[in-house]
Amino acid sequence: MTIKFGEILEITLLLLTAVSNADAKKCSRLVTAEMRTNALENVNKYSWAEQEQKNAILYAEPWVKLSDDELWNFITSQELPRDIHTNKTVGCPNCEDGIAPYGNYPWKYDFWNEPWKIKCPNCDEMYPRNDFYAFYKTTLDEHGMFRRELGDRSLLFNAEHPDPKDPLHKLYVDDGYGMVDENGNKHHAVAYYNQWAQWRAIYNGLSSLGGAYTLTGDKLYAHKAAVILDRIADVYPEMDFMPLHKMGFEHSHGGPGRGRIEGC
Asked: pTM above 0.85?
C-alpha cells in the first residue's frame, strides 16, 4: 500500500495532538489554585496580607496600562546584543575610571522615562548620543525581529551634533553593536541597556503580573503575563550567546560563551 505525503502529515498531526492532549498542562503547578484561594482568604483576614495585595497591584500597574502590542514589542530578539559591561577596561568614556568605585555594573538607567540610555553615576554623562529607538524601529523584519542591516542608517547620528559636516556627528553613536569614543575605544552602551534595563524589566514585569494575579485572581494580570511569555517563546529559539561571545560581548558564562538570553 502506498501512503501519500499528505496522509503521513495527517497521521503525524493526529499523533502529536494525542500526545499534546495527554501531557497538556491543565492547571498551574508552582502556585496552585488552592494556594491562590488561601492567599485571597488571608487578604480578607489579615492586614499584612491586604498590604501585600496592595503592593502587588502597585508593582503590576505600569504593565497592565500597556497595550498587548506595547508589551509584545518590549521583547528584543537575538541579533540585538546583550552585554554585562560597556567597556570594563576603559570605564566611562568621559571620566574613565571615575566610575570604578560604583561597582562592576555601575551604569544607571531609567527604563520608563529614558529608554535606551545609560548614565554614568560619577559624571552624569549619558550614552549613546543618538536616538537608538528611532533606528531600532526601522530594523524590524516582518516577524518583529531586530535585523541591523535593515535599519535606516541616516538616523545614526549624534543628536547634539546633527550637522553631517560636524566632526562630532558620529561620536558616541551606537547601532546596537557599540559606540566609539574620541580615542577609538568601543563601548557597548545599547547592549548594556538591553541586558540590564530591557531584559531585567521584562523579568520584573512577569514577576509583578504573576504576583498580582496570585493575590487578586484578576485574569487581566494573567493575560498580560501571557502576552509577554508568548513573545519570549517567539524569540527564544534564535537566542544563543555564543555568536555574541565571539564578537566580544560579555556575560556570566565563565568563559566558554554558553547560554541563551544570558550566559550560563
From this structure: yes
